[in-house]
Amino acid sequence: MSDSRAVQPFSFSDIEFADNAEPRCACLLILDNSGSMAGARLEQLNAGVRQFREELMADPLAQKRVEVGVISFGPVKVVTEFTTADQWNPVTLEAESDTPMGSAIEKALDMIERRKSDYRKGGVSMYRPWMILITDGSPTDSVHSASLLIREGEAAKKFAFFAIGVDGANMDALKNIAAPERGPMRLDGHKFREFFMWLSASMKSVSQSSTSAATLGLPSTTGWAQL
Amino acid sequence: MFVSDGAGSATHSAFGSNIACETALAEFSEWLVMRNSSEGPTAEEIKPWLSAVILTIKDEASNRGLTMRDLACTFVGAIVTPLWSCYLQVGDGGIVIEHESHFRVVHWPDGGEYANQTHFMTDPNALDRLMFKVEVERPISIGLFSDGVQFVSLDYAKREPVAGFFRTLTKALRSSEGDGIEEFIERLHGLLNSDVINQRTDDDKTLVLCVRDAC
User: Fold this and answer.
1) From A17, A157, A214, residue closest to B165, measured CB to CB
2) Which of the two residues, B6 and A41, has the higher pLDDT score?
3) Cα distance from B63 to chain A (closest Cα, Å)?
4) Among the ranges given (A64-68, A171-175, B71-75), the one the predictor scored with the smallest mean pLDDT
5) A25-32 and A130-135 strand pairing
6) How far is it, in rounded angstroms, from Cα B130 to Cα B45?
């Protein structure tokens, strides 16, 4: 489209802007698919995870900024490497073996550190990553190391770690792993859908926050947490 | 020239940022009068200016029954003389200077690890995070800006300014000498408020631009 007028002296028509990557928020799900999760528990968990993806897809900013990774245990498997919702096809988990919670958490910590390193190398801004552990049991391996790393990491604000106990989960074990100021929570029945709605709302909140925003307020957990 | 960006989460940060700029200006002016200004200041010489900024903010907070955090602000400053230029910064935002058609960011913004945080003048040990440089070359143009402009004008992967951003604006500023300056300011205001920028950032946007004739 040609313009026959002379270009204004202070025309900004040839201005360029940076094409910086969207800031990323890593969200790592560490999901118990041990034998005891078989049946309704795992069905509801799988359904909740799929819903989580749909909710992220429904929000244009969260879709671009939230990166989801999935680890299942036991055995410990990286089911999904970090990916944005549009590239993520949630894998349906089947009930498998035991509950090596310690190893699963250590694997998760490693994944988070590597992702942060990727962001730094690529000049990609990031939000503090979240780790979500969901279990119905007791650890079948040592969690001593995992516990130290979680508490140290939380104190240094390297990530935010949430532990969710389902049905007969060993809440004392989870209390020993989680940071004191972010104690484990018990899922009310099988309200996985409600939990993942809370998680997607929280992720939307984080991924929209900027330095000019007021203190980050997360949605209430009353929809899914047992008091 | 000084730019100070009040923290959005701090209730009275506008006071903090105002004090930061005025105090720094007063301190520097006094230094200039008292010292031989053929050489730029050292880091040790400017630290008292910044301590004065911090103390003044502390007093203001105290008078209002507030904490330092309530007046949190970043700080970016540049002083350009014929013989030397000095560039100082605590937190994010930035300074881009031009020499012989090449644009360079003086200090990479120190925004902290996460996208929704930064370092402030009001933090404990803020002066440990001071970035400071004195150069003898005088730039032919200089831009100071807050973090809202940083995301659209700096290439984060390459850690460089986007030349096409600064070149367009400095060229336009040069052509607007005299009567044109009002219209330039209006146009710049319009640009910073435009969709094309607001789609990329929702932070406050402050930009100070200065050009001189190249010798």
Assistant:
1) A17
2) A41
3) 24
4) B71-75
5) parallel
6) 13
The answer to whether A39 faces chain B, any CB pair under 8 Å, is no
Q: Which residue has the tokens 């389902």?
A: A166
Residues of B in contact with A21 (CB under 8 A): 156-157
Q: How far apart are CA B71 and CA B64, in angstroms?
A: 11
Tokens representing residue B212 in the block = 């001189």
Q: What is the pLDDT of residue B115?
A: 85
CA gap B118, B151 in Å, rounded: 14
pLDDT at position A2: 45
For the stretch A6-27, pLDDT in tens is 445 556 888 999 989 989 999 9
Round to whole Å and give the CA distance between B180 and B211. 15
Q: Which residues of A touch B176 (CB under 8 A)?
A: 9-10
Closest-CA distance of chain A to residue B163, Å: 8
Q: What is the pLDDT of residue B3?
A: 84
Q: With left for phi above 0 and alpha for psi between -120 and 50, is residue B86 left, alpha or beta?
A: beta
Q: What is the tens place of the pLDDT at every residue in A94-147?
A: 999 999 999 999 999 999 999 999 999 999 999 999 999 999 999 999 999 999
Tokens 């203001």 sit on residue: B60
CB contacts of B159 in chain A (<8 Å) are: 123
Q: Tokens standing for B196?
A: 């094309």
CB contact under 8 A, A14 and B164: yes
- Rounded to whole angstroms, the Cα distance separating B76 from B107 reads 10
By CA distance, what is B201's nearest residue in A? A210
Tell whether A128 lies on the interface with B, counting CB pairs under 8 A. Answer: yes
Judging contacts by C-beta atoms under 8 Å, the chain B residues touching residue A15 are 164-165, 168-169, 191
Q: pTM score, two decimals?
A: 0.84
DSSP lists the bridge partners of residue B75 as B90
Question: Contacts by B178-186 with C-beta closer than 8 Å and gap 24+?
Answer: B180/A9, B180/A10, B183/A10, B184/A10
Query: For residue B215, what are its two tokens?
Result: 């010798």
